[in-house]
Structure to design on (206 residues):
């Protein structure tokens, strides 16, 4: 049996199959929703949360660079009583634009979804936050690096992202003179505030 990664990548290239999940020995396949089309970066990133599969579509194939007229989005699939997967919602940034590659990375935890748009914020990257109430996901703000990059033209803010409860971790490997940094944000009321920047003691580039 091919791995999930292989199936995800084949979907991203060919626009044929999203993923195949095996639960108690039975494989279920969810197909790309009508209208999405091939070569739009569908299934670039994936996350699983409480009976839902969250699948990103950046609007740009990561393998074949073609001009696109579609902004990124996250497709939410929900398990049905029949044991299949059906699209339940499509999430997008309210200020999203074509070329920001919204959905390049994702992480979910504690009812919070973090979605990276690496080309947003003038190419330095931005992370959008969504929160879930019941079965509904709503946009809940965004975060950017607080320190202007001191080395390279793009910080790669959001190269990796993780959510743990009310804390968000965002990697920026080109920050700190290309030595790398991790930004730490904490949920405060309806927003997110940066609380720390973590760097390695021996991580500065020379």
């Amino acid at each position: 049996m091919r791995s999930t990664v292989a199936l995800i990548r084949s979907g991203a290239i060919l626009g044929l199959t999203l993923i195949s999940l095996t639960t108690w020995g039975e494989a279920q396949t969810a197909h790309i929703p009508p209208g999405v089309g091939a070569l739009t970066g569908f299934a670039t990133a994936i996350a699983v949360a409480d009976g839902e599969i969250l699948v990103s579509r950046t609007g740009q194939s990561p393998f074949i660079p073609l001009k696109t007229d579609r902004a990124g989005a996250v497709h939410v699939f929900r398990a049905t009583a029949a044991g299949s997967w059906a699209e339940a919602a499509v999430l997008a940034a309210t200020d999203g634009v074509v070329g920001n590659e919204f959905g390049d990375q994702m992480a979910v935890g504690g009812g919070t979804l973090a979605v990276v748009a690496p080309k947003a914020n003038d190419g330095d990257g931005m992370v959008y936050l969504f929160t879930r109430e019941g079965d509904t996901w709503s946009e809940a703000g965004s975060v950017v690096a607080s320190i202007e990059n001191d080395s390279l033209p793009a910080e790669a803010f959001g190269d990796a992202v993780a959510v743990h409860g009310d804390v968000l971790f965002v990697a920026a490997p080109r920050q700190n003179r290309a030595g790398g940094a991790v930004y730490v944000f904490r949920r405060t009321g309806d927003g997110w505030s940066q609380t720390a920047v973590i760097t390695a003691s021996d991580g500065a580039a020379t």
